[in-house]
Amino acid sequence: MQRKTHSGDKIFKCEVCDKLFGKRWYLKRHMKIHNGDKAFKCEICNKLFVHSFNLKKHMRVHTGEKPYKCEVCDKLFSDSSTLKTHNRLHSGDKPFKCEVCFKMFRQSNDLICHTRIHTGDKPFKCEICFKLFSQSNHLKTHLRLHIQEKPFKCEVCGTTFRHNGSLKTHMMIHDGETPFKCKVCHNFFISNSALKTHIMSHTGENHLNV
């Protein structure tokens, strides 16, 4: 579908998802996403792509090529969009705003995930127990409960964990770190949960009570 703006510019609209384009060719290229046309194949892993530039970007996974460099910290990236997002760490730019609570975000995906807090939308479902999640990474972590996967391994003692955060907390045992301090008696603890349990000894609170 073609229409004009107030300035007279031609706008081409996708009839499937309503996305707008300034050129007919851009719309035509975009339509391949909806048509399922994946003509470009990676000869290493056989993954298929809609556009040749997607395949070119994917190949850097195999080659390790990172041609885009941050001029501030010299960190390298495999694609320009990731570099652009990274640069916002240095500039403090947060161009994506939640229209409900006005919180700002550096990435559009972060805004999309955040919006689900307001809408209650949970589009990711566990096919084993049918529990719903608002983010795909939360579902991925949940699935480890079913398959008993513990991919995060302590290189010191070999203990494995489902969550990277649990491994980091565990490593404090080996490193001798105790960053959580009791404000009453000034004792230190390796985790916030251990500190909370300890504080009950001062307050007399029974953590088993509900």
TrEMBL record:
Q: Where does the source fall among the domains of life? A: Eukaryota
C2H2-type domain location is 12-39, 40-67, 68-95, 96-123, 124-151, 152-179, 180-207
Q: Known PROSITE patterns for this protein?
A: ZINC_FINGER_C2H2_1, ZINC_FINGER_C2H2_2
Compartments, record wording: Nucleus
Principal place where this protein is found?
nucleus
Query: Which UniProt keyword terms apply here?
Result: DNA-binding, Metal-binding, Nucleus, Repeat, Transcription, Transcription regulation, Zinc, Zinc-finger
Keyword Repeat listed:
yes
Q: What InterPro entries does the entry give?
A: Znf_C2H2_sf (IPR036236), Znf_C2H2_type (IPR013087)
Q: Which GO terms describe its cellular component?
A: nucleus
Q: Is Ligase given among the entry's keywords?
A: no
GO molecular-function terms, A-Z: DNA binding; zinc ion binding
Concerning its family, UniProt says:
Belongs to the krueppel C2H2-type zinc-finger protein family.
What is this protein identified as? C2H2-type domain-containing protein
Originating species: Sinanodonta woodiana (Chinese pond mussel)
